[in-house]
Amino acid sequence: MILMRALVVFESMFGNTQAVAEAIADGLATRMDVDLVEVGSAPAAVPDDVDLLVVGAPTHAFGMSRPGTRRSAAQQAPGGLVSKGEGLREWLAALGGHAPDVAAAAFDTRVKNPWIPGSARHGAERRLRRQGFAILTGSQSFYVSGTPGPLLEGETERARYWGTALATARQAGTHRIA
């Protein structure tokens, strides 16, 4: 049996998106080899042996972070940020080529409020699609109680389950997650 490989790349300010990325990686690891990487250490191109790319970031000002929103986050984090350099937006913009059969999925963390529009995952998914990745549908938002968090109860378990579902869908060659 040939084991598939996933690469999970995350941007995190206060540690919430990192916790979700770790849970997703745990779920993926039930069915595939997984590399979990903070965006500042992510490779410039998706390695040839990667079958699934999963990217995630916090939602800032209705989308993916920008230099200004990261500076604002840094002012709210006296202990420092998890992701200190460029964010997922910049990494995706600079991302080199990839194998045409690499599937991708996106997630974000955000405050659970139906009146606040926007999502980092939508922008990430759009950028992945433009670069030719086969998008696994079912991108997810994971919820925090406020800007610095913490994650709402049950979100890491939901992230772990989603990771398992992504791995199952990728192995089956489907692009829908039930």
Task: Give an overview in words.
The protein is α/β, with parallel strands linked by helices and 178 residues long. 33% of the residues lie in helices and 20% in strands. It is built from 5 helices and 6 strands; from the N terminus they run βαββααβαββα. It has helices at residues 16-28, 67-75, 88-94, 120-130, 155-172, and strands spanning 5-10, 33-38, 52-58, 103-111, 134-135, 140-144. Strands 1, 2, 3, 4, 5 and 6 form a 6-stranded parallel beta sheet that branches. Helix 1 links the parallel strand 1 (5-10) and strand 2 (33-38). Helix 3 packs parallel to helix 4. The mean pLDDT is 90.
Q: Name the poorly predicted regions.
A: none
Query: What's the main sheet like?
Result: 6 strands, parallel
Number of β-strand runs: 6
Mean pLDDT metric: 90
Q: Enumerate how many helices there are, as a single number.
A: 5
Overall, the morphology is globular
Q: Calculate Rg over CA atoms.
A: 15 Å
Distance between the termini: 25 Å
* Pattern of helices and strands: EHEEHHEHEEH
Strand content: 15-25%
Helical residues, percent: 25-40%
Structural class: alpha/beta
